[in-house]
Specification:
Layout lengths: L11 E6 L3 H9 L4 E9 L8 H5 L6 E8 L6 H9 L9 E2 L2 E2 L6 E4 L2 H17 L9 E4 L3 E3 L7 H4 L1 H11 L1 H9 L9 H7 L8 H7 L2 H9 L17 E5 L5 E4 L3 E2 L7 E2 L8 E6 L6 E6 L5 E6 L9 E4 L4 E5 L18
Parallel strand pairs: 6-7
Antiparallel strand pairs: 1-3, 1-6, 2-3, 2-8, 4-5, 9-10, 9-17, 11-12, 12-16, 13-14, 14-15, 15-16
Helix pairs in contact: 3-4
Length: 344
Amino acid sequence: MTTYLSAQEKEQKATFAGGCFWCMEQAFKELPGVIAVTSGYTGGSDQDPSYEEVSAGTTGHREAIEIIFDPARMNYAQLLDTFWKSIDPTDKDGQFADQGSQYKTAIFYHNEEQKKMAQESKKALQDFKIFSKPVVVDILSAQVFYPAEEYHQDYYKKNALQYQAYKKGSGREDFLKKTWKGREDVPLCPLRRSVAKETYVKPDEKEIKAKLSPTQYKVTQECSTETPFANEYWDNKKDGIYVDVVSGEPLFLSIDKFDSGTGWPSFTKPLEPANVVEKKDLTLGAERTEVRSKNADSHLGHVFDDGPAPTGQRFCINSAALLFISKEDMEAKGYGAYLKYFGK
């Protein structure tokens, strides 16, 4: 599924050193809200070093990854959680089979907020007493980051067999499974704990029936289609966010809504691409692309390739599958992170 970026989005950086950057890249690459992950080198004095030079351990650089992320969909605390659960934080000389200064772990913070959160999460990890040895990961100010050679980028995909053999043989895979089994959802940062409560889940059948109107139930649970031009939001022009009527998961923004002339709410793109799942639909004898919400698995509508620029797509959505939250109510109802799209 394509990742769409709005001009109002403010991208942020995060940089982590966790031994072999191939393993670190895989850990972060497919997280929702992560826009890009680049393997490279940082922390040393040599300019634009090569892999061979860094591997020799003489440049002062460490293998690291630089992450570009959308803070509206992924906060820094969640990235910290992923980092801690991808390394051995007690190894002061490297990581697993890779030993030396170039493989030492570090969190390179880009601002004071990241520094504070990194320190808090490190202390939390130590206080959990998961490890018998001290947590020794360095917390350092971000320095110049040099991207690694192209063959290192997406190595875990380009050379899947070699990568899996390395990850298993190095001991990293077994260590992480043993350490975090049953603890996968343990949050290591106060902000992460608050975010963890904002999960969007599908209620049980009894609650769904009590919550939804007959039309909403037929549309979301039985893939029905409501009447055009006679539904709640087809002509709604107010500023705000459209969420799944069943789970509340964010789906679309009013600024991406347009008049398609069809009589149903139409959008050029989803607000949260990860929350909108596309499926092949052959129910009318011709292939169409159905869209459903990820967490509630609600039927939303269909997506077509006859929309306006820049995406060329038209997400034709049933009003009955949506709940509109006005801009004025977004903060109070837990969607304040999206107010930035409206200049706040």
